Amino acid sequence: MTWEGTSTSYAFRDPYLLAFEPSFIEVRNVETGLLEQIIEGQNYAVYISIIENANIFDFR
Length: 60
Prior knowledge:
Layout: E1 9-13, E2 16-20, E3 24-29, E4 35-40, E5 46-51, E6 54-59
Antiparallel strand pairs: 1-2, 2-3, 3-4, 5-6
């Protein structure tokens, strides 16, 4: 996989790997390695909760 930037943190939600940059989130499919989406923004914070084996991501 060739990443678009230098990630500061990662999150996994099958089948997607989210790579967090200071100004965007890169979403990749781990099965294909393909870039699915880039979400642009500023100063993302990641809050992760685990409820009955399901990860819930809240991006603010």
